[in-house]
Amino acid sequence: MNFTQQFIEDKDLVEQALKEAFRGRTPHADLYDAMNYSLLAGGKRLRPILTLETCRLCGGDPAAVLPFACAVEMIHTYSLIHDDLPCMDNDELRRGKPTNHMVYGEATAVLAGDALLTAAFELALEGRGSLDPLGVLEALQCLANAAGGAGMVGGQALDMAGEGHALTQADVEELQRLKTGALIAAAAEIGCILAGGSPEERQAVGLYAAKLGQAFQIRDDMLDVTGDEERLGKPVGSDAKGEKTTFVTLRGLEECGHLVEKLTREAVEALAGFEKPEFLQELAQVLVGRSN
């Protein structure tokens, strides 16, 4: 199976599982509608695919870790809902559709995000099945650390605090490592953990994901300047509007392009010791040239 076929198969697997996640739940006003509105709005599904494929890379069964993969995507989706709120970035468009609060109101959007965060851990535990219990605990700890104040939420706090201020490159690197990189790294490491990967394998996978996450975010910064709003599915120029310091602000577009290529090479090299790293290596290469 080539890269494209495997990517489509993985993505379809994730999409179907997400569609089933809240089927049959008792409605509470518009809560589940709002949750599904953002959860099923599409996207690359990069994070859950990383979980599936790092599990495969380390000799595990991707189907067994699908609930964890979907849990990571739920946490990512909750972060997008909250990130778009008027008290945060105040965006009106996400993935080509009105943002959650524009459709359901701010209160329901906040609650939908809260519910997705807690549902993620519920789903992960429901899907533990035949997985090693110690591995499940370690994976849950990895996910919780990446999602909270020491990870994604901490990065968002730095992002908000940095608006209107001139940040150094070190400041921006730390902000992006937490806000974007932490959950990407966790998605990759969880697949390795649940597959029973060795500490050395987890370290290699973590390095791959860290380089990938940084390259991904810098490319995002570039697209906020050069991208097409219709292809991106969200407004361009929002960083400048929010007076945010990014890699583009600090290094310029051309140097950012070189940096993305360098980080991608380093991500690819991090997996050189694995038997069949081709899918994840090609995934890194594909993300370099993405236009959305």
Concise overview:
The chain is mainly alpha-helical and 292 residues long. The chain has 15 helices and two strands. The mean pLDDT is 94.
Features:
single chain, 292 residues, mainly alpha, two-stranded antiparallel ribbon, 15 helices, 2 strands
Note the topology.
Blueprint: H1 3-20, H2 31-39, H3 46-57, H4 66-83, E1 93-94, E2 97-98, H5 100-104, H6 106-126, H7 133-147, H8 152-162, H9 169-194, H10 199-226, H11 229-232, H12 238-241, H13 247-251, H14 253-270, H15 278-288
Antiparallel strand pairs: 1-2
Proportion in helices: over 70%
Query: How do the strands line up in the largest sheet?
Result: 1-2
Radius of gyration equals 18 Å
Work out the helix count. 15
Low-confidence stretches: none
**Proportion of residues in β-strands:** under 5%
Largest sheet: 2 strands, antiparallel
Structural class based on helices, strands and sheet pairing? mainly alpha
Distance from N terminus to C terminus (CA atoms, Å) equals 25 Å
Order of helices and strands: HHHHEEHHHHHHHHHHH
Got a strand count? 2
Shape: globular
Query: Averaging pLDDT over every residue, what do you get?
Result: 94
Report the oligomer. single chain
